[in-house]
Amino acid sequence: MTLKEAAEKAVLIYENPLVCEEDVKDFILEGKAAITFPQGRMRLENKLASEEGQKANYVLWCPQDFPSDVLITWDFYPVREPGLCMMFFAAKGKGGEDLFDSSLQKRTGEYVQYHHGDINAFHISYFRRKEPDERAFHTCNLRKSYGFYLTAQGGDPIPDVADAKPPYHIAVLKKGNEVRFYIDELEIFCFVDDGETYGSLLGGGKIGFRQLAPFIGEYENLKVYEVK
């Protein structure tokens, strides 16, 4: 199913402008980050020095659960690099538990806890400007966990901060066994999951924003649609 086809069958089930503290008062932060709104939209920035490695990174979760077939959209503003952005989705415990069930291990933003911990999820990394190879050759990656499987990859059309003209409209479409990723309606990749090679098919779950220090990014107009 393409983005256009999904939009025709999409029903808005969640909307958050992300313009003030009240909009994210129920969001759950794992790790340490500064969440501010200097431009009237959500800004995420690390509190710990990037020299601390994975301890300086974090995930900010929307508390709501979403169904399996969804279209997730938001507007993205890169402010300062280097760094990297991610969107987690379809996130649940490996046994189907709620992501914040007390039986699950505590998570503090360190990456291994999300791909080799006790949760399942997809995550897309985009605006990858952390390591030298990422800065030299820009790609967007889809990984499936548990297991840290790289399942799809495509070129990143967003320029570096100095040349960027945001906002960039980001869209994730998960329908049936397909995951598609778009930037400004340009399809970056499509992954068709056979439910075996990289583990069982993932259903619904939670979504979350992740950043790698010292990147600063801003977000607004988060919307989630159920795709009929």
Task: Set down the secondary structure blueprint.
Blueprint (H helix, E strand, L loop, with lengths): L2 H6 L1 E7 L11 E3 L2 E4 L5 E5 L11 E4 L8 E11 L3 E10 L18 H4 L3 E8 L5 H5 L2 E7 L3 E7 L12 E8 L2 E6 L2 E7 L13 E7 L3 E12 L1
Antiparallel strand pairs: 1-15, 2-5, 3-4, 4-15, 5-14, 6-11, 6-15, 7-8, 7-14, 8-9, 9-10, 11-12, 12-13
Folded structure, characterized:
By secondary structure, the chain is mainly beta. It has one domain: Sandwich (Jelly Rolls), CATH 2.60.120.200. It is 7% helix and 46% strand. A hairpin with a 2-residue loop joins strand 11 and strand 12. The protein starts with a helix and ends with a strand.
For the CA atoms, what is the radius of gyration? 16 Å
Average pLDDT reading = 97
Distance between the termini: 11 Å
CATH names the topology as Jelly Rolls
Structural class: mainly beta
Q: Report the β-strand fraction as a percent range.
A: over 45%
Order of SSEs: HEEEEEEEHEHEEEEEEE
Low-confidence stretches: none
What's the number of helices? Answer: 3
CATH class: Mainly Beta
Choose one word for the global shape. globular
**Overall number of structural domains:** 1
Main sheet attributes: strand count, strand direction, barrel closure: 8 strands, antiparallel
The count of strands amounts to: 15
The percent of residues in helical segments reads under 10%
CATH architecture: Sandwich
